[in-house]
Amino acid sequence: MRVNFAVRQMQFKDVPAVLAIERQSFGMPWTRQMFEDEVHQDLAWRQVAQNDSEGVAGFLLGREYPDAWHLMDLAVAPRARRRGAADSLVAAFVAAADQAERPVFLEVRPKNAEAMALYEKWGFTAVGLRKRYYTDTGEDALVMMRPVGAAGPGAGDPGAAGAARGGIDGRRRLRGPLLAIESSCDDSSAAVLSPDGDVLSNVVHSQDAIHERYGGVVPEVASRAHVERMTAVVREALAQAGAGATDLGGVAVTVGPGLIGALLVGVQTAKAIAWAHRLPLFPVNHLHGHLAAVWLADHDAPLPMVTLVASGGHTSLVGVDDWTSFRLLGQTLDDAAGEAFDKGARLLGLGYPGGRELDRLAEEGDPKAFAFPVALKRSPRPDFSFSGVKTALFYLLRDMSAEERAARAADVAASYREAIVEALVSKSVKAAKAEGARSLGVAGGVAANSLLRRRLVERGEAAGLHVVVPPFAYCTDNAAMIGAAALAGPSLPYPDYLDVDPSASLPLGRWSTLPDSHP
Ligand code: KG4
Ligand code: ZN
User: Fold this and answer.
1) Phi, psi of 366 (to 5 degrees)
2) What one-character DSSP code corresponds to residue 300?
3) Could you tell me which residues come within 8 angstroms of residue 436 by beta carbon, excluding any fewer than 6 positions away?
4) 450 Cα nearest atom in ligand 1
5) Nearest bound ligand to the CA of residue 449
6) Whole-angstrom Cα distance, residue 476 to residue 482?
7) Is ligand 1 within 6 A of the CB of residue 470?
8) Which of 284, 292, 297 is nearest to 318 (CA)?
9) Quick check: 428 and 275 in contact, CB under 8 A?
10) What is the number of the ligand closest to the CA of 335?
11) Radius of gyration over every alpha carbon of the chain, rounded to an integer in angstroms
């Protein structure tokens, strides 16, 4: 006999009835606490089937994860079985999943033939095994999946769901805030962004004090320091954003390029958090992160844009056609601009990393005191070279007496900075004009340089360009920019990202080493 059951939202007062059905149905039942938690869970799907004479006869608990829905628990009271209660519950759930255009996953005991038959009827098929999933018996779980719009008895209109599918828009894919993690070099950073891209927190733990005594970043030391700090940095970012791990809608992480041991720490941390909470993972190219710092600072900058990325590790000019299409226009043929500043600072006896010290000293000197070579000045290509200017500085200082070196330090610093900045600015403005760009952006630690900031605005605006110089916090390595890039880029659904590995040499334009991870 089939009796119609009405399906409605589970409420707190239903928990005793639901718990009784659960205990009658499973050898390893959920606890009362688990059900009470579900009633308060934002992503929870929770419905009961009932009719007037019998009260609550069954229930279904699910989760609406951003990338896929999950059927977690379905049970019907023994007295009410085979009368359509389970069908009513599953029908409501899969219809809503179709509406949301999400596939549905579930785990079932392979011995539970009756449940498998029910799910197959509703369009689920077996897609894999989870080894030793059931801790009571050590049994494997069979994973079943129902694609969007799969046929079923009364599964709704699959055509309508398909037609509603939109283009790529990261903002629409997130149900909660995005946690972003960056560990490609010597800064451990975590940030939380709202699904709309607002930065809710951005915590950076710099390792400068650790590497100072070596005068440079020591990869093994960096990776150990990331291990020691990352958990605290993530916890702090969540706390400052007022978010818990269970609130998150996704996790973004830098997968390359960078120091492999350092990248590994961030990637494993991100994977673990995403996996534990069944969230999608957003793999991010570190360079895309630097480029995103520009639109994090000015979301309305007109495109196309040319952005100068100048840091301790890279110096390149990138054409940004939209927030996911990048073209490498030119780059340094030898040292990075930050490296040239740091090496110059070292020759001048300043601290580590010396870029900022050299910049400060240069503010007091005469930039015309010494003529340093501006490399590739006449070359039409938007490339850079900084080894010549560094060598010139070495010989200049070598030929000075100790007194002269001390007396002229500010003039030397100012002239040296002038040559580097002139190369960066003239090549950037030239490339932007040649590309027909409307905006000119700058990113990377060297964007903190005061002369570079001034001159880029001056010359860029004179050339009719909209110039974006992000705040310092978004110029040096930070996780907020990684989150901003992630929101425009591709994501991998749970649990497809377990094979994502970091890549020390990930090229511009690639989001991860997986072939299918392009937007
Ligand atoms: O982007 P970043 O934090 O890390 C890398 O990805 O390399 O950049 C750090 C670099 C260092 O070389 C540092 O000396 C340089 O940025 N830097 C500066 C200034 N502040 C930081 N270079 C010139 N002038 C500055 N004010
Ligand atoms: Zn960087």
Assistant:
1) -100, 115
2) T
3) 304
4) 26
5) 1
6) 12
7) no
8) 292
9) no
10) 1
11) 29
Give me ligand 2 centre to Cα 401, in Å.
37
Is residue 342 within 6 Å of ligand 1 at its C-beta? yes
Q: What is this structure's pTM?
A: 0.69
Write out the two tokens for 314: 């890279």
What are the residues whose beta carbon lies below 5 Å from ligand 2 (ion)?
Answer: 311, 477
For residue 191, what are the CA distances in angstroms to 2, 237, 308, 400? 53, 5, 24, 47
Ligand 1 near 204 CB (within 6 A): no
| Pairing outcome for strands 104-108 and 141-146 | antiparallel
Q: What is the DSSP track for 193-207? A: E-TT--EEEEEEEE-
DSSP string, 95-162: HHHHHTT--EEEEE-TT-HHHHHHHHHTT-EEEEEETT--TTT-PPEEEEEE-TT---TT---HHHHH
Can you tell me whether residue 384 is helix, strand or coil?
A: strand
483 lines ligand 1 (CB under 6 A): no
Establish whether residue 316 lines the binding site of ligand 1, counting it when its CB lies within 6 angstroms of any ligand atom.
no
In order along its 519 residues, the chain shows pLDDT tens digits of: 566 788 888 888 899 999 999 988 888 888 888 888 888 877 788 999 988 888 899 999 998 887 788 898 899 998 888 888 898 899 889 988 888 888 898 988 888 878 888 898 888 887 777 777 787 788 888 888 898 888 877 433 333 222 222 223 344 468 899 999 999 988 899 999 999 999 999 999 977 766 666 667 777 777 787 788 999 999 999 999 999 999 999 999 999 999 999 999 999 999 999 999 999 999 999 999 999 999 999 999 999 999 999 998 889 999 999 888 899 999 999 999 999 999 999 999 997 779 999 999 999 999 999 999 888 888 889 999 999 999 999 999 999 999 999 999 999 999 999 999 999 999 999 999 999 999 999 999 999 999 999 999 999 999 999 999 999 999 999 999 999 999 999 999 888 899 899 999 999 999 988 864 444
Q: Say which ligand is closest to the CA of 338.
A: 1
Query: Residues 345, 409: contact at Cβ < 8 Å?
Result: no
Nearest ligand 1 atom to the CA of 286 is 6
- Bridge partners (DSSP) of residue 310 are 315
Q: Is 182 exposed, middle or buried (0-12, 13-18, 19+ CB in 10 A)?
A: buried
> Which distant-in-sequence residues (6+ apart) come within 8 Å of 111 by Cβ?
139
Those residues whose C-beta lies under 8 Å from the C-beta of residue 247, and which sit 6 or more positions away, are 42, 176, 177
Ligand 1 pocket, 184 CB below 6 A? no
Contact 95, 104 (CB under 8 A): no
The secondary structure of 271-298, three-state, reads HHHHHHCCCCEEEEEHHHHHHHHHHHHC
